[in-house]
Amino acid sequence: MDRRQVLETYDDEYARTYDRRFVLPGHYGVKTEFELKLLSELLEPGWKWLDVGCGTGYFLSRFRGVERAGIDLSPAMLAHAREANPDALFFREGDFTEDVPEWHGQWDLVTSMWYAYGMVESLAAVRGVVDNLAAWTSDRGVCFLPLFDPRKIRGVKVPYLHRNVAFPPGTVLMTGVTWSWIEASGKRHEHMVAPATEEMMSMFEDHFDAVELVRYPSFPWFGRGRHVKALIARKKRPAARAVP
Q1: Structural domain of residue 22, as residue ranges?
Q2: Total count of domains within the chain
Q3: The domain that contains 83 carries what CATH number?
Q4: In the beta sheet, which residues pair with residue 211?
Q5: Which of 42, 44, 100, 160 has the fewest Cβ atoms within 10 Å of its own Cβ atom?
């Protein structure tokens, strides 16, 4: 993860306008309301919730009274999260690619909203993030992760499986893509990783016995609303931690 770029992009100005730009308006609002509904269905009474890459803490703020916490790399985003969640357990400034051993098995709901996992530098690094999410989830708990499917970038078709496409015959798997977004303001989100949905499913299946996809209702999203989906992982396996 390019920490310098993350901190330069997610500064005070970005944090002040983030919810207005990416959480509340237009089709983002429809996405947000659907995700809030899913979260309310996943949360059980007495559960503890950790939001990884929590940003401004908007989603956490909609569940007052729930024991909840967040981790994010940006101090500016965390300042807003703390203000929006005065009753939260804590907000930690940190890198979610780094394990926190004292969190192992401590959280009943572990989420990572808005594709934060894609800010790492490789598929191997995404797997490391998934390892952390699984390790931090309690034995009874659930992981919830909205997915960034490469196939929904302006309708680009990126099939996962290609058979007999080379000589000698063999199989090619399109396991993911990298992409960059340079905003009109000059803010940069460079070389982000978007694993194929099949790859994300496989990573979580290493740790959970029940991994499912939830498709969002149809709404405009880069022209391909039907590809918007989230991953829900349940029934954690004992010692769910990948070997480095």
Answers
A1: 3-148+196-236
A2: 1
A3: 3.40.50.150
A4: 233
A5: 44
